[in-house]
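TL;DR need structure tokens for one chain.
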Amino acid sequence: MIRWLLWALLVALHTGVSRSQDGLQPPVPQGVRVEPDFGSQVLSISWEKNPASPKLMYDVQVLRTELMEVVYNETMEVRPDSPGKVHHFNWTSGVPLECTSHSVRLRSRDQQRSSDWSPLQTVPGMDIPDNPDAKMYPQDLVVLVGSNMTFCCIMEEGKQFGSFKYLRGPLASVRLSRRSYAGTMTNQLPSMPSGTNVLCMDDNKGLGSGAVVFVGYPPGDGNLTCETRDLRSVECQWSAGRETHLRGVRQTFYTLNGRNCTSANELARSGRRDKLQCRLNATLEGGSRVFTLEARNPLGTIHLSDTADLSQRVRPYAPLKVVATETRGRNSSLRWDWGTKGYEALLLECQASVNGSERAFTLEYAGQGLKQAVVTGLEPDEEYSVRIRCRLQSAPWRWGDWSHDYTFRTEEERPDALDAWAWMATNQTGYIKWKPLSKSHGQILGYRVTYGRPEEEYWQTLSLPQTKHSALLRLGPDGDYIITVIAHNSAGESPPASVTVPQFIAGETEGAVPTVRVAGSAGGFDLSLPADANASCGYVVEWCHAGRADCDWAKVSAGNASARIESESFEAGVRYNFSIYACTDRAPELLARREGYVQELVPAQPVSSLMVEQYKRTSGALLSWGDIPLESRRGFISGYSIYRAIGTHLMPIANLTNPDARNYTVRNLTPGLYKFTVKAHTSAGSDEGATVSLNLDLTTDWLVGEVLIALGAMTAFLILMTVVCYEKRQWVKKTFYPEIPEPKLQEEWSTTPGPFGGRTLDVQPCPHSTVHIVEDPGHGSGKPDPTEDGEEDEESGDSSSDTDSCDPVVLRYYNQVVDEGSRCPPSTDSSASSMASARTDVTYTGIQSPAPCTSSSSSASAAAAGVTQPEVPHTGGYRPQMAPAPEPAEPQQDCAEPAEPTDLPLLGGFGGFGGYQPQSTWRAPTPETRSLNSSLGSPTSVSSSQFLLPDPEAEEGGERAPSTTWFHSLLSGKP
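>> reply
TL;DR here they are.
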């Protein structure tokens, strides 16, 4: 029985466990509660623990209630030993909780089994139908610069959402519920102190709602320092750091050791950040203390600390009521008060800052409870301002504040000696000039100038007002004068300034001392001083503005070999003339002269009077220009550049390095329009240049002149040659035209009366010679020519030896030409009778026979006539005083072909003439030598001086060449 009971109990237990494992679920979480925190957008979720199942896990879901959209789903495990009777979980929403309703539900989980969801716990939003108005969240939120932020817009019932508008433009939107939409801004920039607006617009671009966001920084203050000033309290100062961009209730608030810093908070509220300080009551006793400053705003909080012993950190206030108790010309006594008790026992160190019209300086004083001081180093009749500050001498911490400026004026004193300089303007006029006193020590009332010779008892005095600083004096021509000038004010007179002026003329002195150029540098001139034994009291360097009577000077002490001359009046581009004098016991002596520019500039204007003219002799242009005025040079002229302007381009032609050049010739130009530019150079560059134009024409004046000169020279030469030839006509005739001997006849030829009363020889002509016969009636008597006697025997002998010839040559009257085609026709009685009764003198021109006649009949005829006809190869015509050519071995019936004549030098130098040439060959005239030269040397009558063979050119023209007539008339002496 007991066995059965135990078995039944086991079966029952097994059955219960199986049911629990097969059909029982984990319990549903109980006591679920949801608490919203709208400011932080957090939902606090809590539920009761299950004691029977402490190791259960829970699924948590957060939903947007209206759309039942799950926005959070997470499984979490709770600690079984956690204290309390409930479990807690916090969920932070990405959008403000007011935007829409949120619901929370939970279920428990045991491994793979889970319970049912707990009932929804809903937190209602502002978009429920009970709130029909438009709203936007969050409102007036403060965020950090660079953060992201989500806004939601709840539209009014009946209206449709349009868009978000932000400072940087529209935002992308997401729908949360029927009326609610969300937009997120990323990486926000600092906002204005009044915040940045975010707007929600409907679909008609109307304003639905809006919100303001404040974007800024947490506090950044630092450098806390604490000290005491009134010896009864502590003052702490600090630097504000960067701007937080937060104002009003969102500003940074300060507390010092837990006490509110009212003054600092007021400054922060107004936006001032320069004098942030906080004060607490404290005493000097107690040693070192810790002072803590807290700075807090909605974005953060910082704490600053400083440890200080106030007895060592005393910074006095500014002295009060600073006054001068006594003031003299060069010092003043000051006094002040302290407005704080306890300073009389402090060992103080004070400073006095003094500022005058010419310089500023600081004086220091020390003493216990210091209240007065004497300011020294002042100048008479000068206005000064002074201020005082102090600090603790035993433990120097910081200087106290400066007092207010106190102004006072020192008393007057008599002036210092003037710096004067004098020179002779003319031989009887002196000029003295002095510089205004830089430290007059009082108001100058006037000047007194006294001058005279040392040996004179009475000197002349001249009084001048305080506005004058020079005087022109009338001095005598003899002796050196001493000029003294004195300045006076209400305190007295200055020491006299004396200058000895020698008698000299400035022009002669300038010519005696050469001028050397110097270059300026850094706004001044470095001048070398010539060594001089007489310079006992130093040197005086005088400089004048070139072109003006504006001069200045500087005195150099003895022993210096150079001097640096600087002046505020020096101007760039202005020439200054320097004169260096030796200061002696008597009158100054001029040692050297210099001239230069402190800085050279390009010339202010181009060369003057630029002109151009055309060259008559050559194809060129002559440029000439004038000098540049001295005041416009602005530097030493180093040369000139010549350019040809071609459009806007300047083509260089020449660079003249001579500064004295004033003209230049441009050669080898062709006719046309030219523009020339001339630029002057200094060391600084060239000017803009002056331009001149020239229209170069092909002028004929010089051509006509040269032609006339050439014609005149030729005419004079011809006249001279004509006179010489006329005076020496016999010599010319004998030299160039000797008389040709008359041929001698062996027997009396038969002749017939001619048309002029003479006898004409009728001979058969040689077919190869064309001879024009010209008869002179003057030779018809047959008188022998005395010049031919010597040759007659020789010719006769030669003629008699020739027995074989052609038929007698027939010579016709005048210009009858023998037919060249005939072959030695028989002679007639009439022709023989003419030849016997008449004598004809014949000379030979340069007629070239085709070939000598070789017929025996021709030779016989010549022998019968008593004329020797020498046979010369390749030439034709009569040639006296020439050796006869050897006869051919066999007589030839035909004439040979002509050959070129052999040229030999002609007598008399007339290479173009072909006249009689003794012991020489003869050549025919060429086409180039025809005209006058071709007629010279032709057969002529000695008596008539007429050419038997006329000039072919003249013959073709129908008239005789006139050149032969006048030339032979000249040689014969006939008019």
